[in-house]
């Protein structure tokens, strides 16, 4: 039985990857951080099953800033595969905590690689590093002749997050070349799901769409509506991570859908999914979104009501304007075929967030009806 160790197992990707590897018969170990309140919501369903004999799932307390802890966990687990997904992953927040991001996302990667080397596991343990399309920085002149970023496009990170991740990328490649380790970078473009953190733009939009439709929120405030992203589904992307580590030769791969969409259009798609059409008027910070029509009898939205506005607090000091990746190498070499398109992703996220907001609304009503 193969043994996998996942850092960042409590995150969006970690939770889907854990499910995938368990399905494939792996023994899965995960690193979770100690927190003052529960932080395992995304994996509780797996954890609760662990007492059943067939579930091989173990969690270890740990942190990527703590070398001795990382060495001890890897020594105990003796993994065949390590997926280093742990990171402070929010680009905007990285401008507030640049040193912490460098420590976790940059040096944290080195700690994993060094631990494997110190323990003499270079031949046994394969390592996946969660690299990112943020490395490209969205510079138009760096796209290839087909208009995509590919595995040869130059990097130009535009945030402390991108700068930390570029160290993670190069140190992974260096350890592969210097010590012959099976260490690979997955350069993943944005991927989302109903488990996406609530402060990333897609989830912020689908949660707010549900809350506005159900009368629980008046207006959604966003930052740069002009940004364009290549969005896929996290479930498809963790499958690619696994495929990267099953190859004969270690290499780096882009994982992307090859299509890009404006943030503004993601808003329109989310509302349209629940029968509400939005019309945008105005420009820059004055741009606003209004209800143009509402065909869903369950939602009582007044026509012409303003429900979207721009709030400059969500702008970044330096922005990545446009990302679009070329998945040719991953499709041909890995045989990777995504099951979701953007419409399918939005549909799933909206269905999930409508249920979530309905449940929250019901709980609020129950709580307010209890006379303490
Ligand atoms: P996520 O939901 O933010 O999850 C990040 C995980 O890292 C969480 O489990 C978090 O723990 C953990 N973590 C944070 N700081 C840590 C530390 N100091 N030590 C150990 N663990 C720590 O991110 P994701 O979307 O699943 O992304 C997974 C990885 O892929 C990240 O490295 C991200 O940078 C990278 N990536 C993501 C995308 C994307 O579009 N999703 C694209 C490219 C690359 P808590 O739950 O305790 O916070
Ligand atoms: O959803 P986002 O915060 O994701 P971002 O910055 O692209 O980063 C994500 O993808 C990277 C891969 O390219 C990962 F490496 C990283 O870990 C993370 O998962 O923002 C997407 C775009 C940005 O251009 C942002 O300026 O949406 C724009 N945006 C507009 N309004 C907003 C908002 N972003 C957020 N978070 N919140 C807003 O209100």
UniProtKB/TrEMBL annotation:
Tell me the keywords, alphabetical order.
Lyase, NADP
Query: Looking at its record, which EC class is this enzyme?
Result: lyase
* EC number(s) given by UniProt: 4.2.1.47
Query: What's the catalysed reaction?
Result: GDP-alpha-D-mannose = GDP-4-dehydro-alpha-D-rhamnose + H2O
Q: What residue ranges carry the coiled-coil annotation? A: none
Picking any one GO biological process from the record gives: 'de novo' GDP-L-fucose biosynthetic process
Q: Which cofactor does it need?
A: NADP(+)
- Which intervals hold domain NAD(P)-binding? 5-349
MF terms (GO), sorted A to Z: GDP-mannose 4,6-dehydratase activity; NADP+ binding
Q: Does the keyword Transcription regulation apply?
A: no
Under HAMAP family, the record lists: GDP_Man_dehydratase
Instruction: Provide the family line.
Output: Belongs to the NAD(P)-dependent epimerase/dehydratase family. GDP-mannose 4,6-dehydratase subfamily.
Task: Please describe what this protein does.
Answer: Catalyzes the conversion of GDP-D-mannose to GDP-4-dehydro-6-deoxy-D-mannose.
Report what the protein is called.
Answer: GDP-mannose 4,6-dehydratase
What is the species listed in this Swiss-Prot or TrEMBL entry?
Flavobacterium hibernum
């Amino acid at each position: 039985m193969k043994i996998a160790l996942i850092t960042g197992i409590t995150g969006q990707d970690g939770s889907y990857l854990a499910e995938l590897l368990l399905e494939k018969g792996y023994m899965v170990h995960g690193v979770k951080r100690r927190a003052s309140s529960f932080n395992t919501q995304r994996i509780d369903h797996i954890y609760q099953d662990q007492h059943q004999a067939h579930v091989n799932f173990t969690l270890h307390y740990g942190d990527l800033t703590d070398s001795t802890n990382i060495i001890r966990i890897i020594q105990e687990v003796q993994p065949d595969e390590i997926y280093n997904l742990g990171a402070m992953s929010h680009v905007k927040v990285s401008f507030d905590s640049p040193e912490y991001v460098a420590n976790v996302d940059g040096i944290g990667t080195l700690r994993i690689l060094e631990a494997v080397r110190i323990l003499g596991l270079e031949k046994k343990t394969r390592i996946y590093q969660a690299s990112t399309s943020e490395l490209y920085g969205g510079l138009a002149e760096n796209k290839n002749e087909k208009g995509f970023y590919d595995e040869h496009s130059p990097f130009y990170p535009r945030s402390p997050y991108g700068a930390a991740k570029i160290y993670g990328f190069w140190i992974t490649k260096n350890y592969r070349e210097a010590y012959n380790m099976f260490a690979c970078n997955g350069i993943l473009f944005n991927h989302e799901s109903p488990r996406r953190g609530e402060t990333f733009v897609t989830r912020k939009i689908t949660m707010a769409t549900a809350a506005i439709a159900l009368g629980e929120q008046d207006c959604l405030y966003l930052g740069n509506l002009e940004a364009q992203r290549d969005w896929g589904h996290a479930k498809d992307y963790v499958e690619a991570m696994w495929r990267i580590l099953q190859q004969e030769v270690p290499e780096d791969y882009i994982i992307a859908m090859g299509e890009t969409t404006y943030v503004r259009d993601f808003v329109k798609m989310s509302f349209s999914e629940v029968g509400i059409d939005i019309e945008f008027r105005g420009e820059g910070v004055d741009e606003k979104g209004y209800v143009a029509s509402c065909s869903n009898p369950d939602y009582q939205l007044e026509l012409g009501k303003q429900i979207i506005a721009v709030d400059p607090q969500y702008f970044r000091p330096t922005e990545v304007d446009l990302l679009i990746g070329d998945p040719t190498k991953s499709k041909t070499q890995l045989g990777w075929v995504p099951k979701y398109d953007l419409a399918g992703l939005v549909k799933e996220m909206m269905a999930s967030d409508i249920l979530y907001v309905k449940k929250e609304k019901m709980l609020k009503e129950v709580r307010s009806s209890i006379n303490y």
